[in-house]
Amino acid sequence: MADDFEFADKGNKIIYETEAKGFNPGLIVLLVVGGLLLTFLVGNYVLYLYAQKTLPPRKNKPVSKKKMKRERLKQGVSAPGE
After folding, report:
1. Which of 14, 51, 73, 76 is most buried by its number of CB atoms within 10 A?
2. Is 19 exposed, middle or buried (0-12, 13-18, 19+ CB in 10 A)?
3. 30 SS3 class
């Protein structure tokens, strides 16, 4: 076996380490979690594109009279009635 490694222990015992047969469990978990995350992100992007096409644009909140007055004063335009 060309892939075997020999290590001499203190008691002159030879330990053979061979490659594990089958899949690494850590790799399987990583692939499953990565696949789920990728599916989630792609799904969100597809839903976002669908919503952009089908939903009407959002309405702006009405600006209060107090805020309009303050903005006009900042710009130097006097508010009507003053």
Report:
1. 73
2. exposed
3. helix
